[in-house]
Design goal:
Blueprint lengths: L10 E5 L5 E6 L4 E7 L5 H16 L8 E7 L3 H18 L3 E5 H7 L8 E8 L2 E9 L5 E3 L4 E3 L1 H5 L6 E4 L1 H5 L1 H8 L3 E3 L9 H13 L17 H5 L13
Helix pairs in contact: 1-2, 3-7
Length: 245
Amino acid sequence: MGGDSAHTPLLLALETSGTIGSVALVTPARCVAELAVEASQSHAQQLLPAIDRLLREAQIDWPQLDGIAVSLGPGSFTGLRIGLATAKGLSFAAGKPLLGIPSLDALASQGKGQGMPICALVDARKKEVYAAFYHEGNDGAMERQSDYLALTPAALAERISEPTLLLGSGAELYRDLLVEQLGDRARFADPTRFFARASSVGQLAIAKFRNQEFLPSDAGPLYVRVSDAELQLGMSSPHSPRSAY
């Protein structure tokens, strides 16, 4: 591991749960560097070249890294599989521990400081969203107040009884419906916060690194609901092969 990892761990973080992905280098104090992975090509084509560019431009070598963090989902089934497989491969090859962060947790952390409950929601297709509710604790940490959900935007709105900050691709896609049902209870974050960022994944992973909460080698994405491919195979578990959550 890196030189002074007990005090200043340096993590490589990957976020591939949505159409816009990213890679970042983070320490407890700051984001050292971050690159977006454009949606025009698949994450499979862009992820490794983006990581290579990130390390070169930040002048960081693999031995300086202390761990690799990856978003677990929910989100794009294909993107999550690619991100986790890439992170596992890099973790094994570089001998670095692997850390996993739910993508909704990373997204919610981007809404801090607004003084109200937060709902992170992303498009799940099939006219549903993946969502979870959060509260910012006195220490500034985001505390999840619900399960990870897969439900219609209308059903989500029924759970909101007070002004709530909404952020994520689901908030953007279903904005009109949410405003119609919630009125001034619907408070929307700045659109720049509508996609989870690798730097947010990395910052949340710092605490897990310090607590040595590493992912097992057989950890799987956090799907919340089964994919179409799994349905065709008769698989009923939303966390196949094995989720860390």
